[in-house]
Amino acid sequence: MTTPAIPHVLPTYNRANLAFERGEGAWAITADGTRYLDLGAGIAVNALGHAHPALVRALTEQAGRIWHVSNLYQIPEQERLADLLVEHTFADTVFFTNSGTEAAELAIKMVRKYWDHAGDPDRTEILTFEGAFHGRSTGAIAAAGSEKMTKGFGPLMPGFRTLPFGDHDALRAAATDRTAAIMVEPVQGEGGIRVLPDICLKGLREICDATGALLVLDEVQCGMGRTGRLFAHEHAGIAPDIMMVAKGIGGGFPLGAVLATARAASGMTAGTHGSTYGGNPLACAVGARVMEIVADPAFLAEVNRKAALFRQKLEGLVAAHPDIFEAVRGQGLMLGLKCRMAPADLVRAAYDQHLLTVPAADNTLRLLPPLNIEDAEIAEAVERLDRAAASLAA
Ligand SMILES: *Cc1c(COP(=O)(O)O)cnc(C)c1O
3-class SS at 327? Predict the structure, then answer.
């Protein structure tokens, strides 16, 4: 058997035939100058759009000073970002990573270490939910458990039990005083913009308090102002023990973090975890600037105002195309259009209208604009979606 030729870039993505040379705010621009309105934002990464002047300044000023310092030394930029995150959240301590997946890995390790440190090393089962996405490492695919991500990659890391989404009886039966942790996204992103109702998040907190299990929230996609609060769990008025963050926190520079209470992190002493690049000065200089901008209550108020405007227009769009769309979903500027078919055709039709959107599971089209998108751009986006839907119906 001859091995077929393979592209120089490993072909694990079905890429659109589009390449962007630069960006300005909510616009991504190809080499020939064609402007695409970007409702994907690098999958909720470019929280402040492309080439935000304050972020460009933070990055280039840091680049002129020092790029990389090992975690063997003090890193003031890292401490500054950790201070900001602790000041604005439930957390007492932060570990920086380069991605959401690495944050998931540490969250899992922290849970295991917590119980080992507490003298109960066999308490390892982490409950997760169907439709979840926590990344692509061996641990993260085992946690999510979906066949699509795990097939061919066995044997899977043990210690996870995936429960049906929204099945309260299954959850109550599964969560016992042997449960190490419950790990969940307050709003499922890849799973199709499925919002966990506040009452469910409160219920998970109560179950964790009753059993002693740690509550681990994956806010990689729904955090950093995306839902209109700095972190999505704030809507429910609860706090996790451990939280994963990435995507928006770097505004486009690779950065992630695990935030934790002192109790949850109590086993993580010197030598128990590390990263060469995690908390790199370039990443943290940008991350601190993103935090300063996004954590401002006036900025979050604007996110909520824009979200209400966007949502109202999307409800009109759904009403105008009942054969294409079923409903609007989501929270804040983490929005989804539940479609009557797989969203791939709609994504392509939107490209024809020079509009970038992102498909998700459960027949959902994701709309994740930069948080500072302008009102006129929201109106423009909905007009382009309207034309895309009309082209499909025709
Ligand atoms: C994207 C994502 C991850 C993985 O993050 P990477 O930076 O791609 O490793 C984990 N959890 C959620 C909820 C995500 O959306």
Answer: strand
